[in-house]
């Protein structure tokens, strides 16, 4: 519904901020030039987005949604993995949010062209794919697809499980001798496609951040490529860059 999409986009863009009242039914009737019934149907869609809450006798108010602070300079520290913390869950908890991860697919897949190039294998080579959908306070905010070389993962049964154990897949890889040297991330901001917007409950064309991460070992091998799409209004990216040689 176009009216619902417009209101949701206003919330996501910060036009309607946390704590703001959504305009009343009569105000929306005047603004959009439609009937009260149409506005009520639109508000059902807006409430279903999880972005507002209805207070008896007051109307609908925009929820407080502090973004997850994505500290790329230290989110993959070994000490966090050894403590059994996965990066997204730890960051969400720090922001006061309730996080959930839904596993959409785990299994063999022909490597997509970009992932294959980064992994150093021919396009179409069989890899292990792990696709997840991340929620924050019940709202989908991120999709992530990991691609791992088959010769690396075939002897690590935990990587085929929905829950690979404390510290996530990076901890299991290091348990089996693949010690990490660095993680390299490439980010691009762009509008969401129609299918991406639908999966993340965004308005068509809403801004997203496309992040691709390579996990490189001390042996110089990329053992995971993670292709991630993030709702841009849900994350703040923080980097620490050394100034010395």
From TrEMBL:
It holds the Pfam family UTRA. The keyword Chaperone does not apply. GO terms for molecular function: DNA binding; DNA-binding transcription factor activity. Keywords: DNA-binding, Transcription, Transcription regulation. SMART domains: HTH_GNTR, UTRA. One of its GO terms (biological process) is negative regulation of DNA-templated transcription. PROSITE patterns: HTH_GNTR (PS50949). Residues 1-65 form the HTH gntR-type domain. This is GntR family transcriptional regulator. It comes from Streptomyces scopuliridis RB72.
């Amino acid at each position: 519904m176009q009216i619902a999409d417009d209101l949701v986009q206003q919330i996501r863009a910060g036009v309607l901020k946390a704590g703001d009242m959504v305009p009343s039914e009569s105000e929306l009737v005047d603004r959009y030039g439609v009937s009260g019934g149409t506005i009520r149907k639109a508000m059902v869609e807006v409430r279903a987005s999880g972005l507002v809450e209805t207070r008896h006798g007051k109307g609908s108010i925009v929820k407080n949604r502090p973004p997850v602070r994505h500290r790329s300079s230290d989110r993959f520290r070994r000490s966090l993995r050894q403590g059994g913390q996965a990066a997204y869950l730890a960051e969400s908890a720090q922001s006061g949010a309730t996080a959930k991860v839904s596993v959409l697919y785990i299994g063999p897949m022909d490597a997509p062209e970009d992932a294959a190039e980064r992994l150093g294998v021919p396009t179409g080579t069989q890899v292990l794919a792990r696709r997840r959908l991340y929620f924050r306070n019940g709202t989908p905010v991120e999709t992530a697809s990991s691609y791992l070389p088959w010769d690396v993962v075939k002897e690590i049964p935990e990587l085929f499980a929905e829950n690979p154990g404390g510290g996530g897949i990076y901890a299991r890889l290091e348990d089996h001798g693949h010690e990490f040297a660095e993680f390299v991330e490439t980010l691009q901001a762009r509008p969401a496609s129609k299918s991406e917007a639908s999966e993340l409950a965004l308005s068509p064309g809403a801004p997203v951040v496309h992040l691709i991460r390579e996990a490189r070992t001390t042996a110089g091998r990329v053992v995971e490529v993670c292709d991630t799409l993030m709702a841009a209004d849900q994350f703040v990216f923080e980097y620490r860059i050394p100034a010395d040689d």
